[in-house]
Amino acid sequence: MILLLTAVTAITSPVAADSLKVALVTDIHYFSPALFDEGEALHTYEQQSGRRFSLQHKVLDQVWRELLYERPDLLLIPGDLTHHGERQSHLGLIARLHEMEKSGTRVLVVPGNHDINIPNAVSYQGHERLPVESITKDEFAALYEPFGYGEAIRRDESSLSYVATLDEEHWILCFDSNRYDEHDSGSITAGRIRPQTMAWALSVLREAREKGITVLGMMHHGVVEHMPYQSTFFPDYLVEEWEQHAEALADAGMPIIFTGHFHSNDVTLYSSSSGNKIHDVETATLAHYPFAWRMMVLAGDSLHVESRFLTALPGDVSLEEEARRRLEGVTYRVAEGRLKGFGFPLPEDLMPLLTDLIVKLYLQHVKGDERVDPSLMEVLRKVASYMENEEEINDLAFDFPPEDLNVKIGWEK
User: Which of 142, 171, 373 is closest to 252 using CA atoms?
Assistant: First the structure.
């Protein structure tokens, strides 16, 4: 325990009295221990998904201990609180959130696409997948009333979006970007901001500007691309009309929005056509590699962002290596499926090259501050040579600015 805590530097230092110490975890995908046992049904799911539910609980326990040790003023969770919207999972996580608030850390949440009205929520008992109860939109707001909804100073009538006060200088606008009202056979990965919600959000931002208050944002889906061609290859991880929304929010004075969903640790700056800026601070998941979370300091017109990774557990020094290997296997299957799903034939010898490229890029992207290592460059050269444009590979940008892991973001009021 001591070794794990001493690996976390700087964040236990006191911050200025007029600053807020803000932690962020996302995509916890909490799955109640009451809903699974070590039977065939669970084994089949874990092999397919790369998840390990018992391990996820150990990871969450360790991160929780570190948060309780560091005592942030605020903990933000931008969605996918539960594995698949199970009522029992919500209740289990809420007990953990109460524990955090009792320690003095305020908690604010928004839902993700896996949290509400999930028609195929199941438990894994022995050989069987058994249906279990999910929750409705109204039940979500009631259950999480102590964690944002009960202290909101503004609520959107058309979604679960709300605004909360952080301090005298800052508000946070928490967007509900999910499509749970359209769920039929399962959850919908894609997200959107309803026109009524966007109009409401812009009115909040106008009011805040008149009062000299800076409004930060929080939403499950990304509002800015985090990697080249993300909107082409992974459109469901950005809100619909993301460029239009990024433009509007930047011009309305929102300097930062906290997101999750893509399970990656990345910060990207978007500049509007008018020269206004918004940073999308995306944080990776606690459910699998790289087991990431953030610790930040908000002070006046700046936010200092630091990344934290859980790389080992007591008795499990190979946590990171084994989790990375599982994610690599799952990503290979997903990449092959997406390439085949584009609907046009690829040459047989190009398919494995493109699959290998996507996997290597993604595994670097999920941890952040991507660097082109020799193995990645070798695959890039093979693909470029095949496409007869090898001279262009040196101009490719793999990581949009600014830095992803440790960065200070400032803005003008």
Answer: 171
